[in-house]
């Protein structure tokens, strides 16, 4: 899973760089999401905000999620990491958050979007969403996203009727168990067998 997240982040870095120079290049905009899965590492990611206003908005978005959970007496540690994450050896919410930071690459965060808000600018943006795969993909489709790169370790059968969903796994067992649902198997990176 770490290799998928790192490689997605590395791809975003490359795509954002190219997009800065070529306004109509297809990959000029990058989004990342899942407010609930950044808890415990949001302060690290906030350092990459383009300015103080974006940093403040990003941190207040994460805090609002935590405050909402606390107001409902919900223990987020009961929902993140998920049972599937734990089965895949991801045991803490902080560990999951660090992995999600890797998916975002290294570019500066340009701003914070509300759910389904259309992205107007270039480079890297954060969208405030839940961690529900079905909801996220629909929100991004509503925001005019043209393709969704979906990393998964344990596997997910999610698809969308409008937005293409490209599922990527670094888990060899998942790739073998669910070949009809996995589009890209990068497990060879972990074994140094993938060119």
Outline the structure in words.
The structure is a single chain. The protein is globular, with a radius of gyration of 16 Å. By secondary structure, it is of the alpha/beta class. A three-stranded parallel β-sheet has the order 1-3-2. It has one domain. Strand 5, helix 7 and strand 6 form a beta-alpha-beta unit. Helix 1 runs parallel beside helix 5. It contains eight helices and six strands, in the order αβααααββαββαβα.
Task: List the keywords.
disordered N terminus, three-stranded parallel sheet, 195 residues, 13% strand, 6 strands, alpha/beta
* Percent of sequence in beta strands: 5-15%
What's the main sheet like? 3 strands, parallel
**H/E element order:** HEHHHHEEHEEHEH
Tally the structural domains. 1
Sequence of strands across the biggest β-sheet: 1-3-2
Low-confidence stretches: 1-7, 18-28
Approximate shape: globular
Number of strands: 6
Query: What average pLDDT do the residues reach?
Result: 80
Helix and strand composition category: alpha/beta
Radius of gyration: 16 Å
């Amino acid at each position: 899973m770490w290799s998928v997240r790192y490689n997605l982040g590395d791809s975003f870095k490359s795509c954002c760089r190219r997009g800065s120079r070529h306004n109509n290049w297809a990959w000029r905009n990058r989004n990342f999401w899942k407010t609930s899965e950044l808890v415990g590492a949001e302060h690290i990611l906030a350092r990459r905000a383009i300015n103080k206003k974006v940093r403040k908005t990003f941190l207040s978005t994460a805090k609002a999620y935590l405050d909402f959970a606390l107001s409902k007496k919900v223990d987020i540690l009961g929902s993140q990491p998920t049972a599937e994450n734990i089965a895949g050896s991801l045991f803490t919410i902080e560990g999951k958050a660090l992995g999600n930071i890797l998916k975002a690459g290294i570019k500066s965060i340009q701003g914070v979007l509300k759910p389904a808000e259309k992205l107007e600018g270039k480079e890297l943006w954060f969208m405030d969403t839940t961690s529900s795969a079905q909801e996220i993909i629909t929100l991004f489709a509503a925001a005019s996203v043209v393709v969704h790169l979906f990393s998964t370790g344990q596997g997910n059968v999610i698809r969308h009727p409008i937005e293409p969903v490209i599922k990527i796994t670094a888990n060899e067992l998942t790739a073998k168990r669910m070949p009809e649902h996995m589009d890209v198997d990068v497990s060879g990176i972990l074994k140094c067998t993938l060119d």
